[in-house]
Design goal:
The protein contains one helix and eleven strands, in the order E-H-E-E-E-E-E-E-E-E-E-E. It is mainly β and 130 residues long.
């Protein structure tokens, strides 16, 4: 019998709720890092207009279960995710085996707001692995 353990995938997650946040997304990130992600609730498509680097995107259903993973979405593209309830954007090249975890539920843990470069982070995202 194997034990399950919780693994934090992204400790610094910004929830993108306001129109201007959703429009800009990751564009203002000078150097995206693997520990940061952007959560777009109630969203099923993204654009990469004006971005300089490709991104990776994870699509979730309304229960926060991974339904799709797309890697290397290049600048100046639009990507739609059928059946998505929310999307997570991150720097391209995530080392996590996200495709292997399609069908697994993610856990969002609210944060009090760590401050880094004057940006508060809203939560962290983890997954339970067995």
């Amino acid at each position: 019998m194997s034990e399950s353990r919780e693994v934090t995938l992204w400790p610094k997650v910004k929830e993108m709720k306001k129109f201007h946040q959703r429009l800009i997304g990751m564009m203002n990130e000078r150097q995206p890092t693997p520990d940061r992600a952007f959560w777009f609730p109630f969203c099923k498509s993204i654009h990469t207009w004006g971005m300089k680097e490709p991104i990776d995107v994870v699509a979730l259903d309304k229960d926060r279960i991974i339904i799709e993973v797309r890697r290397l979405i290049c600048p100046n593209e639009v990507a739609r995710f059928k059946g998505a309830y929310g999307l997570i954007e991150m720097a391209s090249g995530s080392f996590w085996p996200l495709e292997k975890w399609i069908g697994k539920k993610l856990k969002f843990v609210k944060a009090h707001g760590e401050r880094n470069e004057k940006k508060p982070y809203d939560c962290s995202i983890s997954i339970e692995l067995s």
